[in-house]
Amino acid sequence: MKAFIFIAILFTSHPSFSQLKVTLRCPAFDIDLLEGNVNKVFPQFTPGQIKEVFPCFTEEVKKTDSTACAGVFIKDQGLLFYTDRDYIEVRDNYHGKMEPAVMGAARGSLFKYLGNPKIKDVSWDAFQTKYGTLIIYYNTSGKINKLQMSSLGTDSMKLCD
Length: 161
Description:
globular, 11 strands
């Protein structure tokens, strides 16, 4: 009888050790390139502010003395918030809303939105904006495949590799 009671207690108490885990969901992503934000999250936001808006982040790298770049990352959605360097990176696997919708657009198609670039290179252009700098990267076909929105000017920004 004691063995039966022990087994009954063991089986009834076991479920109390397990917990239901809720999958954290992010709101729909909405990038405004002309204002320099994602869902009104700006490059100079803190990690805590970013995680509050985007609880589905996939990785957080804390600022240390090493060369690692600190930030909050949603890599599966192509969004990286580099909090120690005040810029947001949007990669080609991003599939949310973007205004203007430029991912995959041809080089030179942004003049009507941004004017001429402040700095040009073979694979990227840097545009001066009202919030700082927008850097646009191009693949070998001349199509946009990466964006970086920074609250800093071209002379003071430092990018991560």
